[in-house]
Design goal:
The chain is an all-alpha fold. The chain has 2 domains: about 10-80; about 85-185, no CATH class. The chain has 9 helices and no strands. Helix 7 packs across helix 8 (about 125-150), helix 7 packs across helix 9 (about 160-185) and helix 8 runs antiparallel to helix 9. The protein is globular and about 50 Å long.
Length: about 190
Amino acid sequence: MIERFLRPPATPGEWIADAVRVLGVVSVFVAGFGWDLTDAGIIAIGLPALVLPRFLGVRAGFDILYGISVLVASWSNVLGLYRSVPGWDLLVHFECTGVLALMLFVLAARTGVVPGGVGAGQPARVPIVLVGMTGLAISAVWEMIEWFGYTFVSDAIYVAYVDTIGDMAAGGLGALLAGVIASRMRVIELS
């Protein structure tokens, strides 16, 4: 994995994916100076996620989509879009959970947790089921973090039963769609 991470970008897509990572670092400073340190921290939490595709050797298009998804989810929190734009919360849960679940599936395959690797002669049901289940797990953990934040950090964090169930359903559906896509398309480089 280190070799993949250290390999210089070779295609325009790989250069764009690396530019998205740089944008993530710049975003931390912009949020810190333009808003406050808490907002910078919210953006900074996504930085490890932005470098993960480099280690895993995913295709440039997926890398770009994933990086933009992480940044959109982070900035949506900083800018208050989850509360101010109707349906934005569900849309981001659907899309971002899908790409996160697929990236975790690639991680599991690259580390041998999922036998056979990604798309290496696996039946189509493997990514559909595993990415879908991973998305539900991500959704549940995220909602627990929101509850913890509301209970122990700030009552400004919005937590409601209908919101929680809706977010989990949207995330699960997004992950299921990502699993279907992964069962039909190659998301990693053949290296």
